[in-house]
Specification:
Shape: elongated
Number of domains: 2
Distance between the termini: 46 Å
Number of strands: 9
Oligomer: single chain
CATH architecture of the largest domain: 3-Layer(aba) Sandwich
Number of helices: 16
CATH class of the largest domain: Alpha Beta
Helix content: 40-55%
Structural class: alpha/beta
Strand content: 5-15%
Order of helices and strands: HHHHHHHHHEHEHHHEHEHEHEEEE
């Protein structure tokens, strides 16, 4: 929540802005009466949430004293704030009880939120009246600001003890799942064991050369996630995404589906696939080379209206930066896109999984498996992504009945996923099955269990 203004005229209204002086007094009185309340209140309120100036100054003094491990009683604070000595004593004497301090803090925060809305609305009206307003960006900025304002967690500063406590609680919650992954599943068992699924706020990049099956993998991930999701398809139209989804779920040969050469048995399988898939809420944004602003705007809309819990993007290098000047180095433009996707993951508190292209120079090597540094315009991707995965199928380069660069028999139906970067755990290597007829990826052997 942005800093709020407290003088009525600064809100563009003559009425007194919303506030609750009694609730503010009860919060401060509880903190003076019972220091154990300070930590609770600190997670809910900030100095600017108090409307009255003296209340802001008292709260600020309490927090500074508490941070130093110093006493926070009315007498001690009276020496620090002599101009508020009488008010401090009144607050301490009139505190009914500290038992309901969270309720009073909630009232204070609610009024502060309303003041922020009034300030924001006044500023928005001014911007909208401007002759040179960029309407789409103005709408996108408005939605983003309102969503950030909606977040209730105010605490941004933690001790190491706080951080370790949060981490231990997360580990305990994961343990209670009884072996289930804590994040959103990928549908590939070995990959989920390695990464723990997709996690809120994370940007995961899956990179590969053309023809490796990147889009097929993205469709696989979207169908397997089990939550409402969105797909930004900058390369393939929605009709092709729909066809891939039906072929993958029905196991009908994609060429038969495309040519209309499927028989009655195939028809039954397709109808069952459609019946199954319509139950999976998935939005598709079909636009060639959208800007990062377009992607952000659409994702925010889906989050608000459709409740999406995961976003899939195909692919990073096809997304345009806000600065469309072609004289700007491509690395800088890609960097803006990747930073935008990472910020989007954090702002919406969802995982973002994005595809990326790999440079063709990888094909000049004997071992054509891509590495993290092989991504096109990769420097910013390497910095911003929480996980970087690469996809490789040796059958793309070697005859199915021949040998690979390691002089071993080629495995035409095996795909390799290398986890090149993982901020939350180990890197590693997993294999899965590629079924080219229906363009789908499946678990290997008994990995379905």
């Amino acid at each position: 929540m942005s800093a709020v203004l407290h003088e009525p005229e600064r809100f563009g209204v003559l009425r007194v802005p919303p506030h609750n002086a009694d609730a503010e007094a009860q919060v401060l009185g509880s903190m003076l009466f019972d220091p154990n309340c300070i930590e609770t209140v600190s997670t809910m309120l900030r100095t600017e949430d108090f409307y009255q100036r003296e209340h802001r100054e008292i709260f600020d003094a309490v927090m500074r004293q508490s941070g130093k491990g110093q006493p926070t009683d009315a007498v001690t604070l009276g020496d620090l704030l002599p101009e508020h000595r009488n008010r401090l004593i009144d607050l301490a004497n009139n505190a009914y009880s500290s038992a309901n301090v969270k309720g009073y803090a909630g009232m204070v925060r609610d009024k502060a939120m309303r003041r922020s809305l009034i300030e924001f609305g006044t500023r928005l009206a001014g911007d909208a009246f401007g002759n040179d307003s960029d309407t789409p960006n103005l709408i996108a900025d408005t939605i983003g600001a309102l969503m950030r304002m909606q977040k209730t967690e105010a605490k941004a500063e933690y001790t190491l003890r706080d951080a370790m406590s949060l981490a231990y609680k997360a580990a305990e919650d994961a343990r209670k799942l009884g072996g289930a992954i804590p994040g959103i599943p990928s549908g590939l068992t070995k990959l989920d064991r390695l990464l723990g699924g997709w996690h809120d706020g994370d940007l995961t990049v899956l990179a590969a050369r053309p023809s490796m099956g990147k889009t097929a993998m993205l469709v696989k991930l979207a169908l397997a996630c089990g939550v409402p999701c969105g797909i930004v398809s900058a390369e393939q139209p929605a009709i092709q995404i729909g066809a891939r989804a039906m072929a993958a779920r029905s196991h009908v040969d994609a060429s038969k589906f495309r040519n209309g050469a499927f028989d009655d048995e195939d028809t039954g399988r397709l109808l069952r696939a459609v019946s199954d898939l319509v139950e999976h809420p998935c939005m598709i944004y079909d636009r060639s080379s959208p800007s990062i602003a377009d992607v952000v705007r659409m994702a925010r809309k889906w989050r608000q209206n459709e409740g999406i819990r995961c976003l899939f993007v195909d692919y990073v290098q096809r997304i345009e930066a806000s600065n469309s000047d072609k004289r700007t180095p491509k690395t800088e433009r890609v960097g803006e896109v990747v930073r935008g996707l990472k910020s989007l993951a954090r702002d919406l508190e969802i995982p973002v999984v994005a595809l990326a292209q790999v440079n063709r120079k990888v094909e000049e090597r004997a071992d054509k498996r891509p590495a993290m540094g092989d991504m096109a315009d990769s420097s910013e991707i390497e910095k911003e992504a929480d996980q970087i995965l690469t996809l490789y199928r040796e059958a793309v380069y070697f005859d199915a009945d021949g040998v690979n660069e390691r002089n071993k028999p080629v495995r035409p139906y095996v795909a390799e996923i290398n986890v090149e970067k993982n901020r939350h755990g180990p890197c590693g290597y997993v294999e899965c099955i590629w079924v080219p007829e229906s363009m789908r990826f499946e678990n290997m052997g008994n990995d379905h269990a």
